[in-house]
Structure formats: structure tokens, C-alpha cells
Q: What sequence folds into this?
């Protein structure tokens, strides 16, 4: 028989929202873009196809707030701003590499599981689910 979950299993963890989130769509990609050195906003937009300027700005601000990214503004004409990973931001590269390796090894299984799930829960139009829902 499996043991019940310990009600104090998360004691010691920060309550509420984690200090930062790397699981979003854009944060890990931005970390990868900055791993080799500082980049300008316009440089980041090139590989991040599909990100809007607003979302990129919001994500960079959140990353700066969490200490993952440093923003440097230079008083030039035109003004120049660069973003760089902080030493804290660099610490995320190793766990991200592990996640990438896991994804490469198991992506076919995940996609197969998703397809199987969709096949089970998708109900053709006009049919009711068992149980009346």
C-alpha cells in the first residue's frame, strides 16, 4: 500500500508564487539567446519569431526583477540597451540542458500520449459523453 502524502511535504518552500518561473514559453528561449553574452532587444526578436514587442518587454522586465537578467542602457544617439544573463541566470543553463536532453529522448512518447488522450476524450459532434456531460 502506498503511503499517504505528507501534509508538510512543502514546508520550507516559499509560499505562494515561486520566486521566478522558467517554464513559460519565452523565458527559457531568452535565456538561451543570452547564454553567450549581451544582446540588444532587436537581436532577441530575430530567433524569437512570434513574440510581440510588448511580451518581450514584459518578459525581460520580469526576468530582471527576478535577478536573471541585467539591463544596461547606454547614453548614445540613438540610445542603446543591452540585456545580459546575470550569474544567477547562468545557473539555469545546466538544468535547462537536462530538460532539453529529456525532451529529445522522450518527445515521441509525450506526443503519443497526447494523441491517445485526445482520442479518448474527443467526442464527435452531436454525441453526448457517457454520464450526460
A:
Amino acid at each position: 500500500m502506498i503511503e499517504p502524502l505528507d501534509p508538510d511535504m512543502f514546508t520550507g518552500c516559499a509560499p505562494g508564487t515561486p520566486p521566478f518561473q522558467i517554464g513559460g514559453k519565452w523565458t527559457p528561449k531568452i535565456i538561451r539567446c543570452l547564454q553567450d553574452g549581451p544582446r540588444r532587444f532587436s537581436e532577441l526578436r530575430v530567433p524569437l519569431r512570434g513574440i510581440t514587442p510588448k511580451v518581450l518587454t514584459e518578459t525581460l522586465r520580469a526576468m530582471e526583477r527576478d535577478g536573471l537578467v541585467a539591463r544596461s542602457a547606454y547614453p548614445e544617439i540613438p540610445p542603446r540597451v543591452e540585456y545580459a544573463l546575470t550569474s544567477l541566470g547562468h545557473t539555469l543553463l545546466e538544468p535547462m540542458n537536462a530538460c532539453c536532453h529529456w525532451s529529445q529522448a522522450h518527445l515521441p512518447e509525450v506526443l503519443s500520449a497526447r494523441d491517445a488522450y485526445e482520442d479518448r476524450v474527443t467526442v464527435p459532434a452531436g454525441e453526448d459523453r457517457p454520464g450526460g456531460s
User: Anything to note?
Assistant: The longest strand covers residues 69-74.
